[in-house]
Amino acid sequence: MSRDFRLDRVPVDVLAYELAEERASALGRMGRALEQALDKLRAFDAAGPRAEAPASAHHARRILVREAGHALWMFVVQRESCGMRDSRAIMRTYNVPGEVQLSMGPLLTTSTTSS
Prior knowledge:
The protein is mainly alpha-helical. It has helices spanning 11-47, 55-81, 88-93, 98-102. α1 runs antiparallel to α2.
């Protein structure tokens, strides 16, 4: 017969456990999002040469770099909230390009329509 450990705990312990579970789950989601963003950028780069690409291709690549930078930022922030402060391991493990590291930060949306 299985027993729910939470029945023997005080409410604050249950809450702390559930918060730790959510932090770990969010960390996994952020890591997968970074992997996906980097994979999209690498696939784009593998599809063709950059030098003679049209301006629209350069723009599309800049967007992919910014999205990867945002995913990196989200992952780093989540890791730091879990107490992991050293980001060098992320850069090595995920092989994060320098341009993505430099674009790390929130995505700022720009609108061409006025409200």
